[in-house]
Amino acid sequence: MGDIIEKAAGMLPKVLKRVNSRRVKYSRGDNYVYLQATVASTVISYETEHGFRARVQTRDYLIEAKDLIIAGSQVEPRVGDQIVDTNDLKDTSVTYEVMGEATEEAWRYTDRYKNMLRVHSKNIEETA
């Protein structure tokens, strides 16, 4: 019968693509791929070196791991990669850069089967 949890985790990317995803351009240097991603966010709370509490909110993209193919190879996200998200209704594009915050890495798998990536990013440019 197999692992029911593994089957469910494998179905999640397909469900997200159908229900709540958008086409984005994921690039590393001169190489890029267009793929479907679901927008999310993460709030990170941490204590600064001066003892103050800080909160940062990242814009996250949930991406099916098998779709992240750069220069012909499946890759993992890397700090400095960029995601261009276009809003067709407003005719604008926003560029986000992959980066971690405080104690949070720049990305992580969303499940133990490594089907989905959760990529943290910050807005670095908006164009009309």
Question: Would you mind describing this structure in some detail?
Answer:
The chain has a 6-stranded antiparallel β-barrel. It has a two-stranded antiparallel sheet with strand order 4-5. With 128 residues, it is mainly beta. The model has no long low-confidence stretch (mean pLDDT 86). The chain is built from 1 helix and 9 strands.
Q: What's the topology here?
A:
Blueprint: H1 4-19, E1 22-28, E2 31-47, E3 53-64, E4 69-70, E5 73-74, E6 82-87, E7 92-98, E8 107-109, E9 116-127
Antiparallel strand pairs: 1-2, 1-6, 2-3, 3-9, 4-5, 6-7, 7-9, 8-9
What characteristics describe this protein?
6-stranded antiparallel barrel, two-stranded antiparallel ribbon, mainly beta, 128 residues, 12% helix
Number of helices: 1
Radius of gyration: 16 Å
Number of strands: 9
Helix content: 10-25%
- Bin the strand percentage: over 45%
Q: Rough shape?
A: globular
**Spans where pLDDT lies below 50 across 5 or more residues:** none
Quick structural summary:
Helices cover 12% and strands 53% of the residues.
